[in-house]
Fold:
Amino acid sequence: MDRESEELIASRYCAGHTLAQVAADVGVSVKRVRKVLLAQDVTIRHRGVDRLPLPIEDMVEWYRAGESLAQIAERCSTSSSTVHQRLAERGVEMRRRGPNVGWYQARR
Structure:
């Protein structure tokens, strides 16, 4: 792996991206990302311990304005499940999924 890719891995991870997000962005395995980060003396975050600062009030506003969890997740560089969890923590009532949404309906 070249030095530029290693620097990209470190900068994305330090900017708050997860190991899996960095691996997908760079096109390598999570194991490789971890190895590169450790070689650069980057401290690996533990899952659930170091929560990313997210614009919660904006997320609530966007959701109430009709944006999907996936759209908000994309804006915030996080996962839909994280957005769902953070909104639920704020007491936001979740919308039901539409009748033609989801893998089950797509397989019918």
